[in-house]
């Protein structure tokens, strides 16, 4: 099992950050290996990662805890990756602190070995993903309500 936890202070209020971070569909914008997340209903999400050797890693997860605007927890239901974790958003100074904790067990066999080599430093990967999140949030207009600042054309 792999574990990682990291946090970052971002220059946006708790509610703004919550509106963005509580939508799993936004995760592909800042998490380097997430290819796509689709909501199947209000609690079930289908995840697809860019896996090793071009082999996608997929799973479904259920939101097990939702306490807006501060706490979101999940765990996997089925698929090639077993995972659980949480996101916490707390007010801090003139912004918010976002903390992400994730634990996962990679799939078995050859795919699992390749996956383990690709994700050999989950702590560093999570820290880099949160830095990307911070860059996205820093680019938001001040005082705006940015629930989904995606600009797909």
Number of strands: 7
Largest sheet: 7 strands, antiparallel
> What class, by secondary structure content?
alpha+beta
Whole-number radius of gyration? Answer: 15 Å
Mean pLDDT: 86
User: Segments where pLDDT lies below 50 for 5+ residues?
Assistant: 147-153
- The amount of helix comes to 10-25%
The rough form would be described as globular
Distance between the termini: 39 Å
Percent strand: 35-45%
Helix/strand order, N-terminal first = EHEEEEEEHH
Total helices: the number is 3
Neighbour order of strands in the largest sheet: 1-7-6-5-4-3-2
In terms of topology, how is this protein built?
Layout: E1 2-10, H1 14-21, E2 34-39, E3 44-49, E4 57-67, E5 71-79, E6 82-92, E7 95-105, H2 109-118, H3 122-138
Antiparallel strand pairs: 1-7, 2-3, 3-4, 4-5, 5-6, 6-7
Your description of this structure?
It is a single chain. The protein has helices at residues 14-21, 109-118, 122-138, and strands spanning 2-10, 34-39, 44-49, 57-67, 71-79, 82-92, 95-105. The protein is an alpha+beta fold and 153 residues long. A 7-stranded antiparallel β-sheet has the order 1-7-6-5-4-3-2, with helices on one face. It is globular, with a radius of gyration of 15 Å.
Briefly summarize what is shown:
The chain contains three helices and seven strands; from the N terminus they run E-H-E-E-E-E-E-E-H-H. It has 153 residues and is an alpha+beta fold.
Feature tags:
41% strand, seven-stranded antiparallel β-sheet, 3 helices, 153 residues, 23% helix, alpha+beta, single chain
